[in-house]
Description:
The longest helix is centred in the N-terminal third of the chain and has 36 residues, at 78-113. The chain has helices spanning 2-22, 45-69, 78-113, 127-131, 143-159, 163-189, 199-229, 242-275, 320-349, 443-456, and strands at residues 31-32, 35-36, 304-306, 313-315, 355-358, 362-366, 373-376, 380-386, 392-399, 403-410, 413-420, 426-431, 435-438. The radius of gyration is 28 Å and the shape is elongated. The strands form 4 sheets. It has a 6-stranded mixed beta sheet, with helices on one face. Strands 5-6-7 form a 3-stranded antiparallel beta sheet, with no helix packed on it. By secondary structure, the chain is α+β, with helices and mostly antiparallel strands. This is PH domain-containing protein. The chain crosses the membrane at residues 6-25, 81-99, 138-159, 165-184, 211-233, 239-265, 324-346.
Amino acid sequence: MMAPIILVVLIACNFIMAFVSSLAAKPHNYVIVENTFPADKINDPKVLNFSKSFRTRQFQAALILTLLDFMLLIPMKDSSFMLLFFLLLYLTIGTNYLITLRYIRKGHQLIAENHWQLTAQPIQIDTRLVLEKNRKLVSAWWFLLSLGLILLLCGLLYQQAMPDLALMFLIVNILIWGMMFFTWRVINRLPVRPLTDDQKINQQYNDLTKFYWSSLSVFMSGIISLIVFVPLLTMKMAASFFTILTIFEISLILLFCGVSLWWLIRLRRKQDQLLTSTATFRYFGEDYYWRYGMYYNPDDNRLMIPDRIGMNISINLGKTAGKIFLGLVPIILIAAMAVTFVPLYVLDYHPDPLSYEIKNEAVILDGPFVKERNIPFDQITKVELTKQLPTGVRTNGLATNDYDIGHYRIAGESAILFVDHQSKPILIIHTKDRFYYYTNKKPAETKKLYQMIQHLNH
């Protein structure tokens, strides 16, 4: 079941990235794929063909990558499956960037061949615009609503006798809330540059940007806390509600993505409408600093700047903080792959990944990268063997086609699993507080443990 879901996720990533990247082919501030064209050449057949070719290549790549993604349906070990998933995901990201990089060069070549170079104009200072740059910025007080929602949801978790989860939820969401508030602060501090000689249009353009971006940061600070909260409800609810909660969770994620994208596209359209109403657009020579699809200008004091699509905030890689950020990206990507792949590799290829030990009148269950469980004999009320794992809901841990490891809710009861589905039977250890499900890679070892507990517990 995991393979089709992951396949759908990858296919969605392919076409979402193609769609977002293709937005760069639509003129914004007369910029097409990081190149600024003269206003009277935007509808030139050569420029239109250039834009169309870029969009076509993005979606052609998405289609080819989708065909490659179907390799995930080939039967393979879980570790190989997850490694392939990450390689395909990173291939999508890399392909998307390389196409963009190629077309930045082609756009520059098109401008040079037709002598369409624009003359950089001096940066104009509009004192009134600088003083009133945040007049439409959404007030920071609105963040109190999302903060109140976080505290309310945390209180609900605590009331349901889940203090540890409540604390974890609070820490995670306060960090996310802090990131959204930091984003709001960045938007608040963004400097302004008059894009035209019309002061009224400059003010309206800035007001639109500040309002849309700041309101989106407030919206995200609230809805993300709900997205994190909903899966935690499964820990206390019956398994029959799992499907309903899953549908609700997916709906929240789609709402989050859809509203965010719609809001930013709406902003971009309004910005373009303003700029096309005047012929006095000012070019500052920024194409030189966007040659690699990223902004690199050591002489620019700004760390955070608007991107050229008009939908996001970018980082000036010419600053030390920008270089640190760029260096962290591959580290995070590699770490994400390692954290997922390495435990599965151990489970697949270690001779005894799910081990047990009888020590100090207790059974010790252990697995790769999970906390070992010490079960005293005096707490064991019953042991049994079963060939089928009962239906349950994972609340924390690892779940794949072959393995279930971690905390679960099974038949409404708390359970901890160390289960390899390729090995049968499954040992069930009953205690006063929870159930433990265990399988060794060797079925004979599972049966041996069952007999030892029965003998020692009597």
